[in-house]
Design a protein that fits this description.
The chain is of the alpha/beta class. It is 23% helix and 18% strand. Helix 9 links the parallel strand 11 and strand 12 (296-299). The structure holds beta-D-glucopyranose (BGC). Beta-D-glucopyranose binds at residues 58, 61, 98, 151, 187-188, 250, 303-304.
Length: 479
């Protein structure tokens, strides 16, 4: 098992990774065929987007059977093979478990009514909104009552106050652990519990739309549907019951508010950099706020959020790679970021219900595609040189920079000891290593305290003249 405090996890969005079956949709066999690539990159393991049986109303985040693989992606035998091949290469494999809701087509919805949250009345009991738009309550005609869903109506919310829900979910997690899975990403766990009295949520003092949540949803302060105190003992118990297996909680809070999740689950995603502008001030403020945090898993892109190359711009992708891979804690590389992929046109409405397919286009493996022998489910969008093969053949490519950083990272130890912002330059220290990032669009002098540092890695031209080129980064040691 790699060092749990400092993992590099690669997010495999399975649909768009590699298609072996020839139907235009990525699958487990395709992933197995590319494991050597991931090994070459040097990462510690993979997190696989949902692969369980699902009607795919939310691309697998609507599970209809937690103990089977969706035929779109392969079979349980394929997963066994993936585990064997990944472990042979010292890669750990994390699956995406969706604990807060099931698919409305899960047999539980009919067989275990009391595992869900219902309201009997003429109208919804409160003002709760779904993160994806509309009321969080849908009418269930068969019984003339309302059920709760924090996301799409096809995703009814489970009632975690019913101990049978915990037992059932844990049994499914153990099912995969027994087959050799190393842990789980815990999807959307901020929503595990909702207020038992179903009280109205107040207006948000900062109605800010984050990510792809709906405007009406952002107008409310989610004090009764998110981050409820029962979540933390439940996650801590889950971690104990699963003998300390790796669990990464998905929470969208600011970095300073993630500690309870990190303490309970062991690891928590930190998305604060997704919301930062590419400036030394903004990024420096996030790093300063993170300095006492433990268990963070940093991310600069994911399948729910506009990609880094689009958000910050192509000119920042090298600097961003240095940032992501030199921070203390763990990091996730979203597939395709290592070759500089940007957002694409996405899918067609109503299949792409929220416009998130723009962040999910297939990986360009070769200049002519290399993803599938069939027409891919979303078009290939790689610009010239934005494919794995070309970049593997060019030691100056972004892909090679990622690889060099992944290897250099093994030498970086300890917390962030200093974080400084000087004009458009951000620099920080970890032990004897220093990291300097110039967010400006013009060269800046290397800050005076670093003038005698010995450069180990740099993204632009070699910084001999004491100047850092625009949008460049450098890692060095204090001589
Ligand atoms: C996942 C989304 C999904 C939502 C509901 C999220 O946090 O990353 O893709 O739509 O949970 O399950």
């Amino acid at each position: 098992m790699p060092n749990r405090e400092s993992l590099i996890i690669y997010e495999v969005y399975i649909r768009s990774f590699r298609d072996a079956s020839g139907d235009g949709i990525g699958d487990l066999r395709g992933l197995i065929a590319q494991l050597d690539y991931l090994c070459w990159l040097g990462i510690d393991g993979l997190w696989l987007s949902p692969i369980f049986r699902s009607p795919q109303a939310d691309m697998g985040y609507d599970v209809s059977n937690y103990e089977d693989i969706d035929p779109l992606f392969g079979s349980v035998v394929d997963l066994d093979l993936l585990l064997a091949e990944a472990h042979k290469r010292n890669l750990i494999v994390l699956l995406d478990i969706v604990p807060c809701h099931t698919s409305i087509e899960h047999p539980w919805f009919l067989e275990h009514k009391d595992w869900y949250i219902w309201y009997h009345g003429d109208a919804p009991p409160n003002n709760w909104r779904s993160a994806f738009g509309g009321s969080a309550w849908s009418h269930y005609r068969r019984e003339d009552c309302w059920y709760l869903h924090n996301f799409y109506p096809e995703q009814p919310q489970l009632d975690w106050r019913n101990p049978e829900v915990y037992t059932a979910m844990l049994a499914s997690m153990r099912f995969w652990l027994d087959r050799g899975v190393d842990g789980f990403r815990l999807d959307a766990v901020q929503y595990l519990f909702v207020d038992a009295r179903l009280r109205d949520e107040p207006a948000s003092p900062y109605p800010q739309q984050t990510g792809t949540v709906h405007r009406d949803y952002a107008a409310l302060d989610h004090v009764y549907t998110m981050d409820l105190p029962e979540i933390f003992p439940t996650l801590a118990k889950m971690r104990r019951d699963l003998s300390g297996k790796l669990l990464i909680a998905e929470a969208w809070n600011k970095v300073e508010d993630l500690a309870p999740y990190a303490e309970a689950a062991g690891l928590v995603f930190c998305f604060s950099l997704l919301f930062s502008a590419p400036t030394a001030q903004d990024v420096g403020a996030v790093l300063a706020a993170s300095s006492h945090s433990r268990g963070l898993v940093w991310a600069l892109s994911n399948h729910d959020f506009s990609r880094l190359a689009t958000r910050w711009g192509h000119e920042f992708v090298r600097l961003a790679a240095v940032l992501l891979l030199t921070l203390p804690g763990s990091a996730v590389i979203y597939q395709g970021d290592e070759i500089g992929m940007a957002d694409g046109p996405g899918g067609i409405v109503p299949v792409d219900r929220l416009g998130r397919d723009a962040f999910r286009h297939p990986i360009q493996w070769t200049p002519s595609g290399g993803f599938s022998s069939h027409e891919p489910w979303l078009p290939m969008i790689g610009r010239e040189g934005e494919d794995v093969q070309s970049q593997r053949n060019d030691s100056h490519s972004l892909l090679w920079l990622y690889r060099r950083l992944v290897h250099l990272r093994a030498e970086l130890h300890g917390p962030l000891e200093e974080v400084h912002v000087v004009n458009e330059v951000l620099w920080y220290r970890r032990g004897r290593h220093l990291v300097v990032l110039n967010f400006g669009d013009r060269p800046h002098a290397i800050p005076a305290p670093l003038s005698r540092m010995e450069a180990l890695l740099w993204t632009g031209s070699r910084p001999d003249s004491g100047l850092l080129p625009a949008h460049s980064g450098m890692v060095g040691t204090q001589s």
